[in-house]
Amino acid sequence: MNKAEHFGKELYDALRGRYALRPLIERDPSLTVDDAYAISLDFLARRRKDGEKVVGKKIGVTSKAVQDMLGVHQPDFGFLTDWMYVDGDIDVDAKALIAPRAEAEIAFILKDSLVGPGVTAADVLAATQSIVPCFEIVDSRIQDWKIGIVDTVSDNASCGVYVLGKERLDPAGLDLPNLHVAVTKNGAPLSEGYGHAVQGDPAQAVAWLANTLGAYRVTLDAGDVILSGSLVPLAPAQKGDRFEMILSDASGQLGACVANFV
Known about the structure:
It is built from seven helices and eleven strands. By secondary structure, it is α+β, with helices and mostly antiparallel strands. The protein has one domain (53-260): Alpha-Beta Complex (Fumarylacetoacetate hydrolase, domain 2).
């Protein structure tokens, strides 16, 4: 069993057993980011053997607020499966969440594929069917969120589950960098941010993803849901918490999303 298989199995077992691991980089300091992506692909392959289907991709650690919080200073990516999508309340136990944190994002739903390198933000907009207010619930199979870039990449970019709002917004004519998000937790104001928090423009973040994935011969496919990165700091969540995000522009509210933990 090589490194990818060894650590991929560890992460898979931790997900299914709902427990956290000592950081991988502490146990094998020779691990590189390329090793981490190989581990992530092995982890994903084990989930696919269980019947999970890839339905999209996610960008992680794109905003300065999240980079500073986690001490990880470059973006990464992970995969979304149908099991990770939640329609309605988030059952913490059923989804085996360990230490969930909520982050408000803009999701892109693609109508055309994007294949890097060379993808631009304009290409992303042309390939996008709609954007959607979204909560990604990040989670970590690494103890106490002690993650560096190798650990979070290996752990599928620390993804747990995600929730989409009901609105499907045409990005044409919207000023994505200046879209505003306001987040409440249990009815109290929590945080706010703008689209430009993620690499200056959410569409640019998706272009980065397409180009980065191209190096690994992975594409963004028609129908994919793409999570473009958090616009606000991550917020710890537990049973009983309710988060709501309101997405708006200068004209007023555009959409909303709720993450209700049960």
